[in-house]
TrEMBL record:
Name of the protein: Immunoglobulin subtype domain-containing protein
Cross-referenced SUPFAM superfamilies: Immunoglobulin
Segments passing through the bilayer: 12-33, 141-165
Lineage, opening ranks: Eukaryota, Metazoa, Chordata, Craniata, Vertebrata
Annotated gene: vstm5
UniProt entry tagged with the keyword Membrane: yes
Keywords, ordered alphabetically: Membrane, Transmembrane, Transmembrane helix
Domain of life (superkingdom): Eukaryota
């Protein structure tokens, strides 16, 4: 008998209004992201800019995904200190609006980044980003080797210049000695 009472009109109405409330809350979380895809080179920085707003204080969580790997980067709340995992210690900057800066990029950083913004009642919203990380380009290496050759050439020129100066100095010294000799001879010979 009370089985029927459990599902009477009033209970259903309460259930429906709770569900509607949850949907409404989920809808009121907003995550703006001007740019969703980035390409960077190794050792460069990337700034995932987002502006997260929701009723109350949002909790921001950033996760990294690549292939089968899913790794927590960190969680924080605006105004409180961020909790960044050891893997990312020192490389991550957390911002109150949910943005995240990642510095000193490595090849392994390429993949998907997901920011999850959740509010106290438990609803949340995800936004994903794609990061491509390029190796240092061949042209850069060529540029480096060209600079190395130029530096070696400059060093060679400097050594040549020093050698020439040294030779010139010796020549002048010898010429002076030779120029002084006859005078010395003359003064020494004079009494004779
Ligand atoms: C979030 O905050 C940072 C730092 O104040 C700012 O540079 C960035 O533009 C903001 N992002 C958005 C989407 O407003
Ligand atoms: C930071 O996160 C780790 C892993 O989720 C958790 O064990 C730890 O309690 C957190 N620390 C703080 C201060 O929130």
């Amino acid at each position: 008998m009370w089985r029927f009472r459990l599902w009477d009109g009033r209970d259903v109405a309460v259930f429906v209004s709770i569900a509607a409330c949850l949907v409404q809350l989920a809808g009121s979380i907003s995550v703006l992201a001007p740019q969703r895809s980035f390409t960077r080179s190794v050792q460069e920085d990337v700034f995932f800019s987002v502006d997260a707003t929701c009723p109350g204080t949002p909790t921001i969580r950033w996760t990294f995904m690549s292939g089968a790997v899913s790794r927590l980067i960190g969680t924080w709340r605006p105004g409180a200190s961020a909790n960044i995992t050891d893997d990312y210690g020192g490389r991550v900057r957390a911002y109150d609006n949910g943005s995240m800066g990642l510095s000193d990029l490595r090849l392994q950083d390429a993949g998907f980044y997901v920011v999850t913004v959740s509010e106290a009642a438990g609803s949340s919203k995800d936004v994903g980003f794609v990061l491509k990380v390029n190796e240092v380009l061949y042209e850069d290496l060529q540029y480096l080797s060209v600079s190395a050759v130029a530096l070696a050439g400059l060093a060679g020129l400097l050594m040549l210049a020093m050698w020439l100066l040294d030779k010139l100095h010796r020549k002048i010294a010898a010429w002076r000695r030779r120029k002084q000799m006859p005078e010395n001879d003359a003064t020494e010979l004079q009494p004779l």
